[in-house]
């Protein structure tokens, strides 16, 4: 499976601990299955490029990784993203987290949650019809990153 990472740095071997706090799934190395989206992550940046990686899916069962997968945008997914963006609690002891790529518009709904202007159930109604089509993959441990093979720089 091909995955893409937008970056301004030059590297082939990712370090999941160099990720930023306050992101959707916590600190980690983020990739997407959508090359255009990886490029969009760096809007306005100079010297940007997209690294392409190959994820060897056949190796996953033998690695005994702890993987969390969100199939679609749900209340559970939204709360997980909220807690990570607000750095309210850790994202758990996962090696890899996979789920819909949240957009920044979700922050306006989170602000309403903070002000008790809407409930989580009302938020669920708002996100249910939104099409979160791109997936993001967050590799959180050195063990998980070993499943990635650098393929190309675009």
Description:
The chain is an alpha+beta fold and 154 residues long. It has one domain (2-153). The protein is built from 6 helices and 7 strands. A 4-stranded mixed sheet has the order 2-6-5-4. Strands 1-3-7 form a 3-stranded antiparallel sheet. The longest helix has 11 residues, at 75-85. The chain is globular and about 45 Å long. The model has no long low-confidence stretch (mean pLDDT 87).
Strand order of the largest sheet: 2-6-5-4
Secondary structure category:
alpha+beta
Number of strands: 7
Which band does the percent of strand residues land in?
Answer: 15-25%
Please, how many domains? 1
Structure described in brief:
The chain is of the alpha+beta class and 154 residues long.
Topology:
Blueprint: E1 2-7, E2 29-32, H1 35-40, E3 49-55, H2 60-63, E4 67-69, H3 75-85, E5 96-100, H4 106-114, H5 120-128, E6 135-139, H6 142-145, E7 148-153
Parallel strand pairs: 4-5
Antiparallel strand pairs: 1-3, 2-6, 3-7, 5-6
Features:
four-stranded mixed sheet; alpha+beta; three-stranded antiparallel sheet; 154 residues
